[in-house]
Design a protein that fits this description.
16 helices; 4-stranded mixed beta sheet; N Utilization Substance Protein A, Chain:P, domain 4; alpha/beta
Length: about 475
């Protein structure tokens, strides 16, 4: 091989592997020096240099010129292994540098193989690893499919670089909006918050820095063209686009759309929002399996309880009676707590003693005693409720009389209070943004009603929150 061929080969390696040509030249020099020492003896002083322009190799041993061609086959094989290892190390360092800077960005690739449910994706220079846990639920990938995914992690795995991808991370939706909606990429439209349950539904809160640009309409696109592309990319996942508002009451009402909200009452001390809706809007506000209110809670950052006005009044009345019966509280203090927005025993049990002292005017010691006694009552009510459920589950089936009529079941000894009937907020998923909880009852109907869309929106995509809802001040 002459010098020109060597330069051409090194340049080809540089372009293919995206590594610096100087690293390859140095690797060849080290390899040839190592081979010479192995051939002539480790004690010999061997210096090898390559002209970067012409590719000519010059070698010297103990100050005397040396022809590299005399090294022999074994020494040449040693030099080959050293060169290959140097190139691999340089390629791994290059991949690590390139993809480490792309963590959180979106990449496109082709599925090359499926291993135990995990997908290996060709990204061009490297391979991405898409674990089953990071795949969209309900989506089936096949070899040859082209997909987009978010780079979640880049780390060294032995001699290779492992690029972990994700299709369930909320940031994937943000990156898709940046690709499909130029106003989002140009920061004219800001994505203020996002809450996602991959494969099912996502809520995105958007705002516009330019009053002439409608944030929701721009994200949907003409006849839903923009949102349609995003929905197709995430396997038909429903996407709600809601209008962001700095007022928590208005924002929470927007986040719960398409349900119509009557009033939003805030208790800032415990970060809880009580939302009043009409009876016919209750199931719509809660959503299928509580999904709508759960996502609204994560999006807004508030714990949300959904009640009808009748349920709200009954809960207040029951809370006054229960608090009045507590020795450390009494009727006057109970009314003060209800007026301050603590409409259940659970609300009082989780408040900070200093806040309770400020609200009621009692000293810190008495505030702590109130919280302890209320907490004990809440625990007692929960135990009773659990016992009733256990007795109900263990009860034998009702016997049938001669005429085929069922015998009446024994009536419950105690009536459940609204506090025990209210569902506790669910814990958010670890990987989802936001640590808020949402409390709501299960909807009466198993099927969520159809939701109104803004403009012509394709199936599977929804744009809600086009009109801000003015909420009345906190009661």
């Amino acid at each position: 091989m002459n010098g020109a061929d060597l330069v051409r080969i090194i340049d080809s390696i540089r372009r293919e592997k995206n590594i610096d040509a100087e690293i390859v030249f140095q690797g060849i020099e080290v390899a040839l020096a190592s081979a010479a020492k192995k051939h002539f003896g480790a004690a010999e002083d061997v210096v090898v240099s390559i002209d970067r322009a012409s590719g000519e190799i010059q070698a010297a041993m103990d100050g005397q010129s040396l022809d590299p061609g005399v090294l022999g086959r074994i020494a040449a094989q040693t030099a080959k292994q050293v060169i290959i290892q140097k190139i691999r190390d340089a390629e791994r360092a290059s991949l690590m540098e390139d993809y480490a800077d792309q963590i959180g960005s979106i990449v496109s690739g082709q599925v090359t193989r499926i291993e135990h449910g995990n997908a290996v994706v060709s990204l061009g220079r490297g391979e991405g690893f898409l674990p089953r846990s990071e795949q969209v639920p309900g989506e089936t990938l096949h070899v040859g499919d082209r997909i987009r995914a978010l780079i979640l992690e880049v780390r060294e795995a032995g001699a290779n670089i492992k690029i972990v991808l994700s299709r369930v991370h909320p940031d994937l939706i943000i990156r898709l909006f940046e690709l499909e909606v130029p106003e989002v990429a140009d920061r004219i439209i800001e994505i203020e918050a996002i809450a996602r349950e991959a494969g099912h539904r996502t809520k995105v809160a958007v705002s516009s820095v330019d009053t002439r640009v409608d944030a929701v309409g721009a994200c949907v696109g003409i006849r839903g063209s923009r949102i349609k592309n995003i929905v197709e990319e995430v396997a038909g996942e429903k996407i709600d686009i809601v209008r962001y508002n700095e007022s928590p009451q208005v924002f929470i009402a927007n986040a719960l759309k398409p349900a119509e909200v009557k009033e939003v009452l805030l208790n800032r001390d415990i970060n809880r929002a009580t939302v009043l809706v009409a009876e016919d809007q209750l199931s719509l506000a809660i959503g299928k399996k509580g999904q709508n209110v759960r996502l609204a809670a994560r999006l807004s950052g508030w714990n949300i309880d959904i009640l009808t006005p009748t349920e709200y009044d009954e809960q207040r009345t029951t809370a006054v009676e229960q608090l009045s019966d507590i020795e450390a509280v009494g009727p006057d203090l109970a009314n003060d707590l209800i007026a301050a927005g603590y409409i259940s025993l659970a609300d009082v049990a989780e408040v900070d003693p200093e806040i309770l002292s400020r609200i009621t005017g009692v000293d810190a010691e008495q505030a702590r005693e109130i919280i302890v006694q209320v907490g004990a009552l809440v625990a007692d009510l929960e135990v009773r409720a659990a016992q009733r459920e256990a007795e109900k589950a263990a009860a034998p089936p009702a016997e049938t009389g001669p005429a085929g009529t069922e015998e009446p079941a024994a009536e419950q000894a105690e009536t459940e209070s609204p506090a025990t009937q209210q569902a506790e907020p669910e814990q958010p998923e670890p990987r989802q943004p936001g640590s808020e909880e949402a409390g709501a009852r299960e909807p009466e109907s198993p099927t969520e009603p159809a939701e109104p869309a803004a403009g012509d929106v394709p199936d599977g995509a929804e744009a809600v929150g086009n009109e801000d809802t003015e909420a009345r001040p906190q009661a």
